[in-house]
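Attaching the record inline, Q. Sequence:
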Amino acid sequence: MRRDAPAAASRAGAGVALLGASWWALRSPAVQRADVRAGEALRHGAATRPEAATHRLGEAGGLRAHAEAPACAVDRVVMATTDLGSVYAVVAMGAVLALTGRRGLAADVLGVGLAGWAVSQAAKTGVNRARPYERDGTRRLLAAPAGSSFPSGHATVATAWSTLAAERAGAPSARASLALVGAYVAATRVHAGVHYPSDVLGGMGMGLALSAAWRGPLAQAARGVLAAAAAASRSLGAMATARRRVT
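Structure, as predicted:
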């Protein structure tokens, strides 16, 4: 644990730096304009296409409920993989890890992922930033997400669980691949038109800070909750089996 302390401190520092930069983008008009242009560049100019505006306004001038169909293979890959930063993905990974005997890692991945979701949702309530497709007609590949654009919950969750998992991975290739998951999910959120670059940078900053803090009492509490849930699940399963035998 002591050997991990410098790495955790570095991640925490990087997280704070990303959060500071993203908050600056929210407060500075000049940086906001650069933020919008960066998002357009990452989307390959999709936000500036004339036909993109039709996905912003309906006949009555309101936001359309449907998303745009994928225009290329990149769009389809983004739509298929962006939910690596969702709560559903975290729960599924935690279940797979627990079933394969890695219960400690399962508890940590599940715990830090859910904590990332909770923290990002709480932060959204205090910012209330409009999303790109709501503000300037940017195309939207996904169903309209709820809540503020800042910070990105998907980027927070993906960075939190993948950074923690990378720390525990044995093979260097696995560590490198896992370390890139957060940045990849962040890029998909910008490409899909549901976040600005500063939104995902803020989310990544939160995720890094959470992964750095996820040790000691926090990790032990998460493992205790998972153990209790597993025991309850086994008890319910045994009761259901006994009832079937009786009937």
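The chain has eleven helices and no strands. The CA atoms of residues 84 and 185 lie 7 Å apart.

More tomorrow.
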